[in-house]
Amino acid sequence: MTDEIVFYHNPRSRAQMVHWMLEEAGAPYRIVPIDFEKGEHKTPSFLALNPMGKLPTIVHRGIVVTETAAIIAYLADIFPQAALAPAIGDPLRGAYYRWLFFGAGCFEPALLDEMMKRPPPPQKTAVGWGSYGEVVAAFKTALAKGPYLLGDKFSAADVYVGSQIRWAMMFGAPGLKGEKVFDDYVARLNARPALQRTSG
Question: I need a surface site. Which of 10, 23, 62, 63 has the fewest CB within 10 A?
Fold first, then answer.
């Protein structure tokens, strides 16, 4: 069975995050472009892989993996030579999981609340991701100790969370662009050769 990863991709999707991760990991991969306008994400063959009809989706050794954070965590573990995830037993492993899933479980929904101007829920404690302001403050505190989410160690959590922060800054989400801690963080990420290879 081939070790090549089949990567279903459209540059106008969250698949861009996985593209960066594939490059950071040094993974062998083949891109299968998905045209949203032609509805290729809703064809029976693609829905057989991902019933949600979403990108990113990868297939590796016959295993289908979907959901951006899950794919990034999977790749970090499958390609340990890239040192993108602390080993099991490493004290940083807990912080790594914390930020990886904080990005998926807190930052993304809070960011969408903010960008779409969704009204706050009647009962704030019912919302597991808190508020946008609280999420940004949590990142600011973590990155102030920097240069990365795990301190001196760049990890797959930076690929995921960093991609989200970069996207949010491009679209004018408040509290990010112009704040030195975020500007410096994104500048460090933008300088990474693996990210630059996916931006051409």
Answer: 62
